[in-house]
Amino acid sequence: EEQRGCCVMNQLRNVLVASLAASAAAYAPSALAGMPATSGTARPAAAAAAAAQPSPSRAVRAGGPVCQMRRGRQMRKPPAPKDNTPINEAIAFDEMRVLVDVPGGSDEMLGVMPKADALAAAEERQLDLVLIADKSEPVICKIVSYDKFRFNKEKKKKEQAKAVKGQELKELKMSYKIGAHDFDVRLRSAQRFLKQGNKVKFSMLFRGREIVHSAVGKEIMERMATALDDHGVLDSSPRVFGRQMIMTVGPKTKEAMAAAAAKKENS
Question: Distance (Å, rounded) from C-alpha 248 to C-alpha 199?
Fold first, then answer.
């Protein structure tokens, strides 16, 4: 009887397993089609299906051109600003002081005249009437070739930029108790720096209660600025910042130095 019972149980188990396998086989194609594969046998099938579908990048390349950013491409520099100097009929002033460009010499003064007369004088010389100083009273215009005027203007800008780029700031320290010999040494050093086209910064440090002598220090700074009048221009007057007094002197232009030398010779 025990053997008979075991045989019956085995038969029932086989029938149950067969029915479950049949129902799973009928349910898998419809219910498991969109689910990710978890078993070892289903993974190769899912991978094969994914490989069969084209990737988005391949689809885009097959359908049309792809917009890609080029690496390493430098941005173009913005165009240089155009010269907006008013010339000829564009000058919005009725009366002006007129100069005439003289090659290799100083400009010729024609005097104050109406705009119509100035345009006629420029047309007679086959040149342009260019506004060079609109803040003056009356304004100042120059009869010159516009191309030459623009070339000289750009050349002057480049020279100024080059001078500023090569300019250095030299510092000279002083004391409110400085002696005559040390003062002369600082003066000669400042003159040398200014001739080289550099700016000079004078600094004076007050320690402790020495700040009460700031008026004496300011007098020394002003005396130094006066002694450098022929070589430099006062950029910033003596000022106290905390416990330090600072004054800056910049170099003079060649035209200003020539005028100062001529004035000194005449006196």
Answer: 7
Q: What is the mean pLDDT of each run of 10 residues along the chain (267 residues)?
A: 68 76 63 48 49 48 47 52 82 94 84 94 94 91 92 84 71 94 95 90 93 93 93 91 93 63 57
Cβ atoms of residues 242 and 205 within 8 Å? no
Question: What whole-number distance in Å separates Cα of residue 116 and Cα of residue 88?
Answer: 10
H or E stretch at 108: strand 108-114
Do residues 228 and 201 lie in contact, with contact meaning Cβ atoms separated by under 8 Å? no
223 vs 219: CA distance, rounded Å? 6
Paired tokens of 87: 């010339």
Terminal-to-terminal C-alpha distance of the chain: 149
Q: What is the pTM of this model?
A: 0.39
Q: CA–CA separation, 87 vs 143, rounded Å? A: 10
CA dist 119 and 86 (Å) reads 13
